[in-house]
Write a structure and sequence with these properties.
The chain has about 90 residues and is mainly alpha-helical. Helices cover about 70% and strands about 5% of the residues. The protein is built from three helices and two strands. Strands 1-2 form a two-stranded antiparallel ribbon.
């Protein structure tokens, strides 16, 4: 759980920093329900890590690369946990 939380917070901060310096990395599909950058960054980070998003916030520009890296981590973490349990059981 702490690994997932650390990844969500870390990538959320990356998205947030880009937004705060003026680089648009996340776009909301429905602009009339625009959330603040803090909320959108951490929400998008959690969605990318657990489910590769649901389409209401989409990455833009360099955000696409960052999102791809986060999705890759989200896919490999469960396998790493299973491998650790399996190898620890053999000892």
């Amino acid at each position: 759980m702490t690994v997932y939380l650390t990844v969500i917070i870390g990538f959320g901060l990356i998205y947030l920093i880009f937004e705060l310096i003026g680089l648009t990395v996340l776009l909301e599909v429905n602009p009339e329900n625009r959330n603040n950058p803090f909320e959108s960054s951490f929400y998008f980070s959690a969605m990318m890590l657990f489910s590769v998003g649901n389409g209401d916030v989409i990455p833009h520009g360099i955000g696409r690369l960052i999102a791809a890296v986060e999705a890759l981590i989200g896919y490999t973490l469960p396998a790493a946990f299973v491998a650790k349990v399996f190898f620890d059981r053999e000892k």
